[in-house]
TrEMBL record:
It comes from Flavobacterium urumqiense. This is Glycosyltransferase involved in cell wall bisynthesis. Pfam families: Glycos_transf_2 (PF00535). PANTHER family: POLY-BETA-1,6-N-ACETYL-D-GLUCOSAMINE SYNTHASE (PTHR43630:SF1). Residues 4-112 form the Glycosyltransferase 2-like domain. One of its GO terms (molecular function) is glycosyltransferase activity. Keywords: Glycosyltransferase, Transferase. Coiled coil: none annotated. Belongs to the glycosyltransferase 2 family. Transmembrane segments: none annotated.
Length: 330
């Protein structure tokens, strides 16, 4: 068994030392760390090269001649890794000492899985845990409401992506399924991987905080602390309704759910239109499924409050929102 780490860097001099140290100090050692730097002009390269001198058989460094951006840089790093298991790594987090061991053990216990993600704690610039809100809380992952892998898939395609790439580990054999990453605005590599593997019902997760996920002003992609009691309550309600654990009752319930389905319809339709390989069919199916559920919600809105439905439709038409042609409407 060989364990790889695919790490992407860009001007990460402030935090990369602690991240590399945390990876090298795992209770189950990794075999290679493939680092792809996207044109850093600070001391990032200098720091990495010092680690290389100390760990020449483990760390390899690829310096991009042109800036590829986060998605394509991760694509490059993953493609270079030849381990049986490939851990994705940001440059500014800190791994818990048992992270690799626990994830590999979970793969052994669940051989059909092709990808695993985990929870994490949130830390600040000073490496301090500064909130009781977890990484999963911040991305609205309602894990306590899931019963099986199909529920996880429904959560992912109907509500939101809860898979943070910095916690993700994949098997080598899925590289041909997920690469190359498409060049689509606002589509990040972790969501792309998650949807494809979840559609195969082969993505799992560990509840433990196995990384310290850093929040700071220089992040290219990061979670925002926007968790409020009302938002959490609404998210729980929406997930309950999506999973079939409860039925929307009020006009507000139906409308909230309709918005979720419609926005997902547009998003996955865009993904489908930009793909010409097998993943096109996955995203086309997801898009059409969201459209079907939107239509059902739209019909329920009419029945629940016809007058208010007409009024809100007029407002939406003025604002240019959720307008369908005659063939698409219910």
């Amino acid at each position: 068994m060989k364990i790889s780490v695919a790490m992407c860097t860009y001007n990460g001099e402030k935090y990369i030392k602690k991240q590399i140290e945390s990876i090298l100090n795992q209770s189950l050692a990794v075999d290679e760390i493939v680092i792809c730097d996207d044109g850093s002009n600070d001391k990032t390269i200098e720091i990495i090269e010092q680690f290389q001198l100390e760990n020449p058989k483990i760390i390899s460094l690829q310096k991009n001649q042109v800036n590829l951006g986060s998605n394509k840089n991760f694509e490059k790093a993953i493609s270079i890794c030849d381990g049986d298991y490939i851990f994705l790594s940001d440059q500014d987090d800190i791994w818990k000492k048992e992270k690799v061991k626990k994830i590999i053990q979970y793969f052994y216990e669940n051989e059909s899985l092709e990808a695993i993600f985990t929870n994490g704690e949130l830390i600040n610039d000073k490496n301090e845990k500064f909130t009781e809100i977890s990484l999963w809380d911040s991305v609205s992952f309602m894990e306590d409401q899931l019963k099986n892998l199909n529920d996880l898939y429904l959560h992912l395609i109907f509500k939101s992506n809860m898979v943070t790439g910095a916690t993700l580990c994949i098997k080598k054999e899925i590289k041909n399924l997920i690469l190359p990453f498409p060049d689509i605005k606002n589509l990040h590599h972790d969501e792309w991987i998650a949807v494809i593997i979840a559609s195969r019902k082969k993505i799992g997760y560990l509840k433990e905080d196995l990384i310290s996920y850093r929040l700071h002003s220089e992040q290219q992609i990061g979670t925002k602390l926007r968790i409020k009691k009302n938002r959490l309550k609404n998210n729980h309600l929406i997930i309950d309704q999506i999973l079939g654990n409860s039925i929307p009752k009020s006009y507000a319930d139906h409308r909230r759910l309709a918005k979720v389905y419609y926005n997902n319809y547009l998003k996955f339709k865009k993904f489908s239109n930009n793909q010409k390989n097998d993943s096109h069919f996955i995203f086309k199916e997801i898009s059409e499924l969201n459209l079907e559920f939107f239509k059902k919600c739209n019909f329920s809105l009419k029945k629940t409050n016809p007058v208010f439905y007409i009024f809100t439709n007029i407002i939406d038409k003025i604002r240019g929102k959720r307008q369908f042609n005659k063939q698409q409407t219910v």
